[in-house]
User: What shape does this take?
Amino acid sequence: MSRTLFALALTASLSAAAIAAVPAAEQPGLAQIRETDLRADIGFLASDALQGRLSLQPGDDAAVQWIASEFAKAGLKPAATDADGHPSYLQAVPLIEYRPDAKATRLTLKRQGKDIEWKDPDVGGSFPTDQDVSGPVVFAGYGITAPELGYDDYAGLDVRGKVVVVFDHEPQEKNPSSIFNGTSNTRYATGYVKVLNAQEHGAAAVLIAPEPSHNHPSAQEVRARIGHHVEHAANPIPSQALADNPLHIPSMVISADVSSQLLATSGSTPAALQNGIDGDLKPRSMALPDTAISLHLHNSSRREATTWNVVGLVEGSDPKLAPETIIISGHHDHDGMSDGKIWHGADDNASGTVGVVTLARAFAANPAKPKRSILFAVFAAEERGLLGAYYLAGHPLRPLDTTRAMINFDMIGRDEKPSPQTEGLIEVPADTSNRLNLIGAAYSPDYLHTVTKQNEQVGLVLDDRFDHEYALNVFFRSDQFPFVLHNVPAFWWFTGFHPDYHHPSDTAEKINYPKMARILKLAYLSAWQFADEAKTPRFVSHPGSQKAD
Assistant: This one.
């Protein structure tokens, strides 16, 4: 026997011994997690027949029907209702699909009786309806209102009907002692929260500028690192938004040059403004003299359509605790096809979809049921902006205030490798063949403790690197994030980026099936623990202060 085969045999033996320590009541379901099933299911979802599962296209609709049929075969309870009020595995997600006309996108500065106009790539943005917004410009720092930190860029600032310029990310990002959770991102760093905050203060539009001093790619650079933006350039994927989009005002991403010109009448420079805010955490917000803009966004096409979240329930066994919920989730869509190429999406996210379906089968087949109920949700349109997850979080099928934990699978099938996504930004360990990244511990250390304890029976290497970096914005980029915004302890389970990420070459034969099976066994044991434990994970509303909700 070669050394490699011996090592594999030894690992399998140790795992079998460890799994024997699992409570007898949980073992039948654990036995349902089989590599052969994972291979067959991912092989189907990532096949040419499903044409890359682009949201609102037939291939993704086929994936939806397959998931719903698997939930039905497993015996899950339908968790939604259809238009006639009948029980259903499908939660309708009404969308608007539109194609931004990049050539028509423009931003015009009006100052001293003159106009300066910018177009792509200096400015970029999209909105599901055509937009023409004009108004005076106000600088609002990082665009953050954080009362628990005593920090508010909008304090004493009137932005009603005005256009707000804000820096990307958040203050003191390079400072390990920052009140914004050191070098990690918090909820305040994402553009979604910044635009929502500006909207709540009455702003008419938002312009997001790169911080002058930053150690991460700009928004434009991030897009350039993702394969499908380059390979779909000749035929861009249409944009999508929720029909009842919570964001009612448009936003644009602007370049450093545009930002400098907009802020030229501030009496300072962008760098000095940032350094001042980072230095003492006091606002430098102000109305900008003699500065007004007009913003134009136009779409070449627009249609209304519906996709679906697929949702099924295993009801809890304890009458008192059954109303409480554990969510196990993933997303079913990917990037479709273009010019004869298919973006197969085996890892992203056939692996996560199959992970949810596999655990649904496991819990449904297990004669004993956990005390709390488990909602299995496979979300729509994640690649178009976490839309299905935002929809379920905004239209919950079970109360979010009694949702105790969320396990979100997005890319759980590969070994992490250096790639354009991570180059120069984060170190990738040499051996990731048994490694799982867990993202979200800043908002719930208790959750991580539970998973780590259960991992003693599985033996994965658990990695929290992505909880301590701000360059990649990973924390915001999957379906757990809308639930974190609702104070749900929610983690992204993730095996990391690789060179096939968002390329047609993300295919089924490259999945590390033995590792994926171990990850699902850990998730099964962790979900049991979340569902049965007397003390469920706390949510920490501000990681820096460890303030729990």
In short: The radius of gyration is 24 Å. Residues 102 and 388 are 26 Å apart (CA to CA). Residues 346-365 form the longest helix (20 residues).
